[in-house]
Amino acid sequence: MSGNARRPLRIRAAGEGTRVNRLELFFDLVFVYAFFNVSRATTDNLTGIGLLHALLIIALLWWCWVAYAWAGNAIRSGEGMVPAVLFPVMAAIFVVALTVEEAFFDIPGGLSGPLVFACCYFVIRMLYVVLQWHAAADQPQLRVQMVRVSATIVVATGFLLLAALVPEMLLHGSARTWTQIGFWLLAVVVEYCSGFLAAPTGWRIASADHWAERFSLILLVAFGELIISVGVGGTQLPHPITWPLIIAAVLGIMVTAALWWAYFDIVALAAEQALHAAHGLHRVVLARDAYIYLHLPMIAGLMLLSLGGKEALKHIGDPNIGSVPIHPVAITLLYGGMILYLLGHLGFQVRMLGTVTWTRVGTITLTAALIPLAVNVPGLMALVLLAATSVALVGSELVLLASSRRSIRAAVLEERLASEARETAWRRQHR
Q1: Are the C-beta atoms of residues 195 and 277 closer than 8 Å to each other?
Q2: For residue 394, is pLDDT > 80?
Q3: CA 12 to CA 4: how far, in whole Å?
């Protein structure tokens, strides 16, 4: 019997050619539900406090996802004991998604929602430590990092427990609300600052392909949630299908497609090439800053855009009010979501490539300038203005960046063809 057969739970290290596998795609499905549930719960509480709650929950969910994305880059997720860890994690994330509506305020009659959220968060984060600890049997520096991460998890969970318990016992009204938010902010700050300030020694990015693909896929999950949420807004009320609603739906897809293009057409490809060229700790720092920290505002921007888009289609689909301006809050979410997404993407570009695309700076500025106009025109016209701005971004870059676009895409195609040729040669040799 071979050594591998005797150790079926063995964790295998990932290599430079590792790509995203089916288990990781399956794992992301629970985040699809979690993101959608955050959006749905926020729609029912579309206030400043409700939005702040949603952003705090998204920040912690993002940190959970990032941890397992990093683990999946270091080890082969579909082998050994990894599935035995990831399936319980998926269950815990699913429970967290179920508690979104009562993550801050418990609904009487069952378990305490805030306590369930805090306990599940602890389980999710600590199972990550368990997985990395086993994977780091011959990496003492990584095990030292896991000790630090464990301490951070305990402190962050402690703040979540305080948010769940102390306000209910001692405070009421707005004092309780802001005390809870304060504890949650401390939990987020502890996690994010610890990750940013800690020395990168012990960490590694084994596969640039896997890392870039992993973040591209979770961004697609956020785009999917955007499409679903906006579609729900168009069918939420029992109104007949109308031309304004059809036009609004088409405009919504135009905005979504333009934002997808803004990420995937050039910058994501160039960033992946830059990550390939980086090595050692420089690659780790780039991956941390550009992907972990600067993808979060993109995810948050898409969530805000989905909230505004849902309200916009619900408004336009109502024949009684469709011709009047949309509520200013919905317009701010719609336009602000696009601005936040593009700002996050601009920061990503600066960090990875050291360049600034001025068409995007102009689009951000124009979108912000259009908000006062959008709140005073009919709802459909407000959506037309946003779609026109996003499509203008695509059109201008297709013309102005044509040369860079051709060279980047040619380099990527050459690399892929070479990789396919190597794989084809290997398969012929091992038939």
Answers
A1: no
A2: yes
A3: 10
| Torsion from C-alpha of 104, 110, 115, 121, nearest 10 degrees | -90
Q: What angle do CA 134, 135, 136 make, to 5 degrees?
A: 90
pLDDT higher than 50, residue 1: no
Amino acid at the residue 8: P
Residue with tokens 């009047």: 324
Q: Which amino acid is at 102?
A: E
pLDDT of residue 26: 93
Q: How high is the pLDDT of residue 429? A: 81
pLDDT at 322: 63
Mark 50-60 as b/e (b = at least 16 C-beta within 10 Å). Answer: bbbbbbbbbbb
Copy the structure tokens of residue 402.
């044509």
Distance CA 204, CA 196 (A): 15
CA angle 218, 288, 402 (to 5 degrees): 65
Query: pTM for the full model?
Result: 0.92
Query: In 10 A of CB 106, how many CB atoms?
Result: 17
- Dig out the tokens for 1 from the structure: 């019997």
pLDDT at 108 over 90: no
**Beta-carbon count within 10 A of 329 CB:** 16
* CA-closest candidate to residue 145, choices 153, 120, 211: 153
Domains and CATH numbers, the chain: 1-206 (no CATH), 207-400 (1.20.1410)
> What is the widest separation between alpha-carbon atoms in the chain?
75
Which among 43-57, 194-208, 285-299 has the top mean pLDDT? 285-299
